[in-house]
Write a structure and sequence with these properties.
Largest sheet: 7 strands, parallel
Structural class: alpha/beta
Family: Belongs to the short-chain dehydrogenases/reductases (SDR) family.
Shape: globular
Strand content: 5-15%
CATH architecture: 3-Layer(aba) Sandwich
Number of helices: 9
Keywords: Oxidoreductase
Number of domains: 1
Pfam families: adh_short
Distance between the termini: 54 Å
InterPro entries: NAD(P)-bd_dom_sf, SDR_fam
CATH topology: Rossmann fold
Radius of gyration: 18 Å
Strand order of the largest sheet: 3-2-1-4-5-6-7
CATH superfamily: NAD(P)-binding Rossmann-like Domain
Protein name: SDR family oxidoreductase
Oligomer: single chain
CATH class: Alpha Beta
Length: about 270
């Protein structure tokens, strides 16, 4: 099998599903990884026959990573050109509102899962180099700390720093390392409340704050461009992400004040 292959975590929904559809339409073989059997089945139904394999994976399980990637490499004909390290959760809210389980789960999935994935994929990506890529999903919340999203921001800052470090570590191996930094993408991650103590959906908070949603297809196209000749370490998606990046560099005081106002607006919804 000569076609290129991409392994996508969180492939059962949202950005992961959109990336699977985008790459499959362009002839790639897709590895759909998720904890949701129904989500993977739905994504698979949207792809051309014979263009994918599915792999149930909890990204917090290091051994499961090795097993899933080995199974995907076998299904793809022995190659993995790209790991899209995308699985994550969007727990938010004030730090004092979060219980221990919410804290531990957020860090384990958003940080440890990304680290495990990169480590497990390294030998496969090195074998496919030059031209192979690791893409980690970070967030606009990793550009500047956001009030009411302190822990979520911290996890995305971790992904951002991890990406920058691996870009340096793996460059001589011919592996391109980069991040996807979206603002608000209208996917299932926004459907529920920010945390157990909230009764307002994250999507409603975004709408009432007057912030824009970026179509999920824009994120998919950005990933495509990143692994097909892209040179950026961080790839911004959406107007909010781009304006935050500018403000973080040139107007951090105004960005802090805006974050305070948004935090108060969210609190008023509760």
């Amino acid at each position: 099998m000569d076609r290129k292959a991409i392994f996508i975590t969180g492939g059962g929904s949202g950005i992961g599903r959109a990336v699977a559809i985008w790459f499959a339409a362009r002839g790639w073989f897709i590895g759909i990884a998720d904890i949701s059997d129904s989500g993977m089945a739905e994504t698979k139904s949207l792809l051309p026959p014979g263009s994918c394999s599915t792999h149930k994976l909890d990204v917090r399980d290091r051994e499961a990573w090795d097993e899933s990637l080995a199974a995907f490499a076998k299904a793809s004909g022995g190659r993995i050109d790209v790991l899209f390290n995308n699985a994550g959760i969007g727990t938010g809210g004030m730090l004092h509102e979060l219980d221990k389980d919410e804290i531990d789960t957020l860090i384990a999935i958003n940080v440890t899962g990304v680290v495990y994935g990169a480590q497990a994929a390294y030998p496969h990506l090195k074998a496919a180099a030059p031209g192979s890529s690791l893409v980690n999903t970070a967030s606009a919340a990793g550009l500047y700390g956001s009030g009411g999203l302190s822990l979520y921001s911290a996890t995305k800052f971790a992904v951002r720093g991890f990406t920058e470090a691996l870009d340096i570590e793996w460059r001589d191996d011919g592996i391109h390392v980069c991040s996807l930094m979206p603002s608000f993408i209208d996917t299932g991650i926004l459907a529920g409340p920010a945390n157990k103590k909230s009764n307002v959906s994250k999507r409603e908070s975004v709408v009432r704050a007057g912030l824009e949603f970026t179509p999920v297809e824009v994120a998919a196209e950005t990933v495509w461009n990143a692994v097909n000749g892209g040179t950026k370490v961080h790839n911004l998606v959406g107007k909010t992400a781009k304006s935050m990046a500018f403000a973080a560099k040139w107007m951090p005081g105004k960005l802090r004040e805006r974050s305070r106002n948004l935090m108060k607006a969210r609190a008023a919804l509760e």
